[in-house]
Design goal:
Order of helices and strands: EHEHHHHEEHEEHEHHHEH
Shape: globular
Helix content: 40-55%
Strand content: 5-15%
Structural class: alpha/beta
């Protein structure tokens, strides 16, 4: 576990070291799968990977070489599956998270971060101090579990002497972690662009037969937060998950803008998934395809930037020779 410490190396062909920063965004994060797959098909392979929250999760399976199998699982998810994987505890958060980690461990196993085939960082937040924590050693699944600990939803994770929560509180798109690992060109995947309703909403209705347990929990929490007289007199307000979802959107939008202004990436990929809600994990197909589309929209720029950087690096080497 480090703050601001990482390793460095050179890209074997061009002297470039490409980093990819996979941002936070809850269910929108399945778009990272499509982004990584489309980059791979374009012949672009990042040398280092940094992820925050859902970005840390997808990045973990990418670095492990399990992205194809993970994509297959995500595409098969239904809302019933999502409900089954969530172990409700109402203690430090609504979800324990152990059931989900056990599933990942059974399907794909764990690994030590320092033994992965390429450098990887998961970003979390120290709940006591508010410091940004880079998880670069030890159990990969423990690091992922800490990074996805969204306050109010997942319980915090005890990590050594610290209680850790979601890295999106401090660094939603971990460009700085990529640079600290030696990347001299960073591709940032920003899932937090335009979250506050400036684009038109495209909400696809869900099948009526699918259970929506988070809406039921939200309704329960909202009802039981008011007395009977108030329930009769007040107009229904926003539910628990709506408040949580919109509050997180506001926070991440502001933090992302600030962090990216201070350290802009060379390339930004922004999937258009602002219409997805916090718990829309069963809409993986839609998110994955939009991740692919986002790369296709940016591919001419990506190729131009990488080509220019390669030319400059080669030219510099020749001049020094």
């Amino acid at each position: 576990m480090h703050e601001g410490q990482a390793i460095s190396a050179d890209h074997p062909q061009s002297g470039l070291r490409i980093g990819i920063a996979l941002g936070s965004g809850s269910a929108r994060g399945w778009a990272h799968i499509g982004v990584l797959q489309e980059l791979k098909e374009a012949g672009i392979t990042p040398d280092v990977v940094a992820g925050t929250s859902i970005g840390a999760l997808v990045g973990a399976w990418y670095v492990r070489g399990h992205l194809d199998a993970f994509e297959e699982w995500v595409r098969s998810l239904t809302r019933r599956d999502v409900m089954r994987y969530m172990d409700i505890v109402f203690s430090g958060g609504l979800i324990e998270g152990r059931r989900l980690m056990d599933l990942y461990r059974q399907r794909w196993g764990d690994a030590l971060i320092e033994e992965l085939p390429r450098p990887y960082t998961a970003v979390a937040t120290d709940l006591k101090t508010g410091k940004e924590i880079w998880l670069q050693k030890g159990s990969l699944l423990d690091a992922v579990r800490a990074s996805i600990s969204l306050p109010g939803l997942f319980r915090p994770v005890r990590y050594g002497q610290q209680w850790l929560v979601d890295g999106g509180l401090v660094n939603p798109v971990p460009i700085t972690a990529c640079r600290a690992m030696g990347a001299n060109i960073v591709i940032a995947v920003n899932l937090n662009g335009d979250l506050l309703g400036r684009r038109r909403r495209l909400r696809t209705p869900q099948p009526a037969s699918e259970p929506n347990w988070w809406d039921k929990v939200s309704s329960f929490l909202t009802r039981n937060g008011r007395n009977e007289k108030n329930r009769q007199e007040e107009e229904p307000g926003p539910g628990f998950f709506e408040v949580l979802h919109k509050s997180i959107n506001i926070m991440q939008d502001r933090i992302t803008r600030s962090r990216m202004a201070g350290d802009p990436p060379e390339i930004t990929i922004t999937p258009r998934l602002e219409h997805l809600e916090l718990m829309d994990y069963a809409r993986g197909i839609e998110a994955i395809e939009e991740g692919r589309n986002a790369v296709r929209r940016m591919l001419p720029l990506i190729e131009d930037v990488l080509g220019l950087k390669t030319t400059l690096a080669t030219g510099t080497d020749e001049m020094e020779a």
